[in-house]
Amino acid sequence: MLGVLVWVFAWWLTEAVPMPITSMSPLFLFPLFGITSADDVASSYMDDVIALVLGSFILALAVEHYNIHRRLALNITLVFCVEPLNAPLLLLGICATTAFVSMWMHNVAAVVMMMPVATGILQRLPSSSSSTEMVPPAVGKFCRAMVLGVIYSAAVGGMSTLTGTGVNLILVGMWKSYFPEADPISFSQWFFFGFPLALCIFVTLWGILCVLYCPKGSGEALSPYLHNSHLRRELEMLGPMSFAEKMVLSVFGGLVVLWMTRNITEDIPGWGYIFDGRVGDGTVSVMMATLLFIIPNNIKKGEKLMDWEKCKKLPWNIVLLLGAGFAIADGVRTSGLAEVLSKGLVFLETAPYWAIAPTVCLIAATITEFTSNNATTTLLVPLLVEIAKTMRIHPLLLMVPGAIGAQFAFLLPTGTPSNIVGFTTGHIEIKDMIKTGLALKVAGTAFLSVLMPTLGAYVFASKGGV
Fold it and tell me: Would you give the DSSP letter of residue 350?
């Protein structure tokens, strides 16, 4: 199993073979090397978590197709673009919009969607390279703050929901794989823990950006170039909301409500109780996505809100990557490799939990700077399960810090595709990412170390059977 693991991760890191093809390699490597049967490894590529991803991706494509995301971004940004101009408030509007959008679609998609909104605002500012007039230093600083705010807000917002990032889904899938007799982690339970954590980190992010890049007097320096009239003009160009947009929003809102109310508390079990635990978040995700292929769009006779032609943009690479992560987790567990590798972290077993949680988070946060978030989670979480068993503590008390830490890729442009999108705008340099990202990484680790044994222990207390 170790040789197969090295093989797969080498292909992932070097991209010698396209990432989606590498993600399918366990389908032939595991049976050929006797790790598991073909049927068992294939089942990892389609379960309730994968169904959750597929349904949410189809809804995200519908939102994108009808330009709902742009309308939402412009409306929220207009609220914060007040007169006289308040630079920290405008920055908050862009960051909050990005974080909110990232809660419901993949981080990279949120950044790709929001970066044009941010750069559209920045294009109205003079550039030191193209302008003959003296450009105030506050202008350049605000440009850096906007770009950094978009890429980091997407990462932070994605932590708060299961659908925001692949890492959270990998964690849920591994929990289900390692502890099938335990209750699965529901969308609402993760939200009750992830949202407060993300909110704390988000406020800290905004504070860091304001301190570093929005000095006193920034509003006065920017006001000659920025006003909300161009935002209103762009919004007017979209026209009034169509029937199709309203229906897509209704379906999306209905899905969120169903996710949040399937399991509420032990005293208030939610609607999932009616079906005796047979339905999952993936069930309603696919069900609501199916409605998009039934409801007409009132644009062309016989045409529905969605058709399969529009779904050709589905990110199958992410779906296959998630399946590979679940397959590898199963292989590491059944082969006994996790138990062997966990002996290398035996020093953690004698340490108190208050020291282990930040240590695990920092280890994950360091590894993730040099490899993908998903790969870091896939490698680290199985080891943390074995350590938790040895320490006789609840596995989620280590699994969650490891998974959240894997999302703290804040220092390098190559850390995540979102970072690359921001870096290619030309407004930020590596030193800007290190200066802001290091402070954010330390703050995130501190918040996680406090919230995991307190709020996390309360939220995940019902996860018995381990």
Answer: G
